[in-house]
Request: fold
Amino acid sequence: MMNVVYIHTHDSGRYWAPYGYNMNMPNIMQIAREGIVFRNAFCAAPTCSPSRAALLTGMAAHSAGMLGLTHRGFSLNDPGKHMASFFSGQGFETVLCGLQHEAEDVSSLGYSRIYRCDQPDSDRLRWDVDNAELACAYLRELHEHPFFLSYGMMNTHRPYPDHLEGGINPDSVLPPWCVPDNAENRRDMADYCYAVEIVDRCTGMILNTLRETGQLENTVLIVTTDHGIAWPFMKCTLYDTGIGVSLIMRIPGMEYKQHATDCLVSQVDIFPTLCDLLGIEKPDWLQGTSLVPVFQENLSVRSSIFAEVNYHSSYEPMRCIRTDRYKLIVRFDDYLGIIATNIDPSMSKDALCRAGYMSWNHAREELYDLDIDPVERVNLIYSRDYQKIYHELNKKLYEWMLATNDPLCVYRYRIPAPEKARINMKTCYAATEQNYEQW
Reply:
């Protein structure tokens, strides 16, 4: 039976070289050339713990019970449905090296072995490299059983490492399109570019070890991230800049129809795909669809994907449905103002708020025609020409919510949080403010 190596990063979106960005990523580019790049892959929730919980259980975040961040009091309903626990039950040795964000108590997730350096307050570069070395040491061992190895990195989470250490010239860097192209944002993006180089360096260590030990041609390799990068209008939003993710898979012996696909996929599809590739019966809780037909024939396996936000630093419940052409976003809270705590701290956030962004409001519903408006600027919710589309998408969205036991179907405006959860007041500017809602 084949092994599985799952390599994952924080907050990277699609800002990687295989997606056309000028990043120094020779190792991940090599994986992309030998595997398949999903150009339209989406997470199930654009916040850290909910996204990872959805991928690793094969369910919507709310179905898995992960409505918020683990370090703020949220948890899986059943850790036994986590991929590590499931594959342990299938005879795999399941190993964690580095980061995970699905449980405060990592021992509950079912890993056979856990290798992690103590996380430093600084020098995330060293932490990611040290954990990569631990992963490589494990890979060099003799294995009696197939293994599932999860290797997670920190560097692309804010605060980024200093670009000066990486020798990156900010004058030659382009910030994300949704923030101004100015000196501050170029420096910030240069820091992110250096973080990505570290990600690639660590990925290369694992790739080379698999190759040197002769295990590469018996190992399914998955390289992905949790959600969009931590900039305004990206992470913690349901725009494509928030839910669009890098997803690259390399499968031994697979004859790909093509090495990049535009087929619409969700990260909840990864679990059933692995079951098919490994010849394992799928558990009954899975909500995703196997991607094997995409690999073999470039055949679409789904007509729509769904994503959600519930709790991040503050409560901001919303859902979306996205098809190849259209996107509908629905907000489920009476408060439609800007929630600053759900925007990670950065120079771009501070500049945006100084310019008056906090006086803006969101629309309760947003409808976009992505063929005409791929950057989601023109809300068509009141356009008479799109009313049929709106009603079709709205119906499918609510059918999905009902089918997946979405708590918003019961608690229309306020999903209860765990008793000890820490939820910032919506009036807070930063998530570090200890001004929490009372339950």
